[in-house]
From TrEMBL:
The chain crosses the membrane at residues 26-46. InterPro entries: Redoxin, Thioredoxin-like_sf, Thioredoxin_CS, Thioredoxin_domain, Thioredoxin_ResA/DsbE_sf. It comes from Tsukamurella tyrosinosolvens. Its main location: other. This is Thiol-disulfide isomerase or thioredoxin. It is found in: Cell envelope. Residues 43-213 form the Thioredoxin domain. SUPFAM superfamilies: Thioredoxin-like. Keywords: Cytochrome c-type biogenesis, Disulfide bond, Isomerase, Membrane, Redox-active center, Signal-anchor, Transmembrane, Transmembrane helix. The keyword NAD does not apply. GO terms for biological process: cytochrome complex assembly. GO terms for cellular component: cell envelope. One of its GO terms (molecular function) is isomerase activity.
Length: 215
């Protein structure tokens, strides 16, 4: 007796996908991954803290320090985003309250908070308050950074620092991978407040007024 073959014949639905079909599927997977990366491009404290992968003051995203607990920021300087031939230095703003905002043109939360930052700067710059941005992890180049500044109407200066080396001046207790971050420095350029997350207009205004009002 002839033995029946145990191999089932392949119908149309059972055949392996053709080369073009496989390519389409791969392209679809890649597209999904790219979108996910763009939407989740910014590293938030809440995400990193959950995994234990970040150092933060008391494990909090928002922190205000009393004067006796404040640390002085080190030498912080870098080339200007809008004027590559100029160097911006924290020391240029001696005696002023300085708000440092860490951002990137690729960062969606940075785009959301940019209008609030400009509003507070415009409202408080006449009271001895200076803002200074630090553009980090900018893989698209300084043209992208300048487009970000123009599109959001930002009038305060920013340092162009893709590697994020200037962040080391803030102190080792702060992460260098979280974007956005905002720091409020008192008139001695000590860190008075740290926000390792997005910030809104009211929160920033309250912090700036509190620090600026110190004797």
């Amino acid at each position: 007796m002839r033995r029946q073959s145990t191999r089932a014949s392949l119908g149309d639905d059972d055949r392996p996908p053709s080369g073009s079909s496989s390519l389409r599927r791969c392209a679809g997977v890649i597209a999904v991954l790219v979108v996910a990366m763009l939407l989740g491009g910014c590293v938030q404290l809440s995400d990193r803290a959950r995994d234990g992968g970040i150092i933060a003051p008391d494990g909090k995203a928002r922190h205000f320090y009393p004067p006796e607990r404040r640390s002085v920021v080190g030498e912080l300087s870098g080339r200007s985003v809008t004027d590559p031939g100029a160097t911006l230095r924290l020391s240029d703003y001696a005696g002023k309250v300085v708000v440092i905002n860490v951002w990137g043109s690729w960062c969606a939360p940075c785009r959301l908070e940019a209008p609030a930052l400009e509003k507070v700067y415009t409202a408080r710059k006449s009271k001895g308050v200076q803002f200074l941005g630090i553009d980090v992890r900018e893989t698209a180049g300084d043209d992208a950074a300048r487009d970000f500044i123009r599109s959001h109407g930002l009038t305060y200066p920013s340092i162009y620092d893709p590697p994020g080396k200037t962040l080391l001046a803030l102190g080792e207790q702060y992460p260098t991978t979280v974007v956005p971050m905002t720091f409020v420095l008192d008139r001695q350029h000590r860190v008075a407040a740290a926000y390792l997350t997005t910030i809104d207009e009211k929160t920033l205004t309250d912090a700036v007024d509190r620090v600026a009002g110190e004797g």
